[in-house]
Amino acid sequence: MVSYPLPAEAVSNRGPPSINSRSAATRRHRSSRSHAGGASFRPQNEFPNFSQTGDVEIIISADGQEKRYMLHRLILAQCSGFFEAGTSEDWSRAQARAHAAETGTAPASGLARIGEDDESSSELGRRSSSSRSTQDKFRWRYELDWGTNDDEVPMLVQKPATTTIFGGDSLPRPPPLSNKPPTPSTGFFRSMANLSAMQSASHIPQSYPPANPDNDIIRDYDNLFRIFYNFSPTLDAVNIAESYIQCKTLLGLADMYDALEVVGPRIDHHLLQFQSRLWKQIAKYPPSYLKLGYLARSKVIFSEALVHVVGQWPSGANQLRHNVPESVLEIIEDKVEELMEKKVKTEARLFRLTLTTVRGERVTPNNAYLDWLALSLFRQWLAENTTPPPPPIAKSPLNLDNRRSAPPHPQPPPLNSGNLFRLLGAGGSSYLTHEELKRFIRIRPDEYSRDSLKKFEKRMDEIKNMAKELVRPLMRNYLELDMGRDGGGLGYLTCTRVEEADFPWD
Description:
By secondary structure, the chain is mainly alpha-helical. The chain is built from 22 helices and six strands. The chain has helices at 8-13, 17-29, 73-79, 81-86, 89-103, 111-117, 122-130, 132-135, 188-201, 216-228, 240-256, 260-272, 276-284, 286-296, 299-312, 317-320, 326-351, 369-386, 400-405, 417-426, 434-441, 450-470, and strands at 45-46, 49-50, 56-62, 65-71, 140-145, 155-159. Strand 1 (45-46) and strand 2 form a beta hairpin. The longest helix has 26 residues, at 326-351.
């Protein structure tokens, strides 16, 4: 066996056997070392602070409290037209030029460009190329501006990012990742405690805790950004009145930032969980829920409130004149005209009701006196309930001065047509009862008898049945609210049907 001498370079680079074996063993067993409880720092990269990937910083300050967000321009632009325009390339360039003109400085370049131009330093070039994706990234900064007057609505305003002497922003960057293993924690018991805490925390679902609910502004902005990132908003699920206020302010905020298409379905889903309590609240405050349903693009809430508003019109006109768009008012007026047309036609048919004799002739005082009395009584009752009462007759004043100072007569209350048509729709003994018919027949004692009373009641029942069929279209209920037999106490009609073409946002 012939041996050859090793080169001098190989001998010089080769260390003692003990050192080489130790280093090889270290490299071989290093991957299985436990890092539980180590001192390594991992920056947060989750909602609301995406410190590694976020490029839009938002600061919300209210009542001495401050909430910071580091979010993504892509998600904000997809969900909000405000952020889409504010973070566009043209707007960003205009803002940079305006800021440079105010400060008298040139727009800052990136730190990575220094490394590209300086070819003499290879170490700086490697650092700039490795961090180019983060340091060349332009960051936007928004702060909540409360304005100068108390009447102004606070709104996010874009602020120029604070730059360093090397260009770029001065926001904290994530520390570079190192291949060197972190120093193990001091003590065996501390490592075991940290390991058990990590294992127990792995079974807990990761969810972002809500902001401080005591401040409405911070809560609304937090809910807005939570919805952008597909988190559930923190809204009251017990008290529907409080939930309505929270939903209303959140929708107003979404309307201001052009994000109703994203926020609206969340509000709709939350309110519909109240079911029967929601229908009762809409019946109490239909104009308010009509506007909320319009902003939330909720077909169910908008339709429910629209039926109430049309039935009560014009009682809710003052609340809606300057609070909803003209398209919504046009829909209301069209539905009111349709309802009034139905009512006028139905009333005309009711007054034209008549009875016929055995020969097919209309009843008259000559051929069927008792039948004619029943028809006359029904028409008189219908006229009294469809015609407003006349104003009271004022007493003659003693002198001219009293005549001038006399107050005007109050207008008669509007007719409660809903209850009238519901009585006609119910029929039977709901109106013109047995006692009323008996008193009417006894006006002329010579014509009163048991047989005449029974015949009179029979003919009246025929008239009531015909009237019931005539008002059947007006008795339809297009509400989700359970009306019951007595109409739920509502004094107006709920037969307004809302079609798909009636929604103003389609």
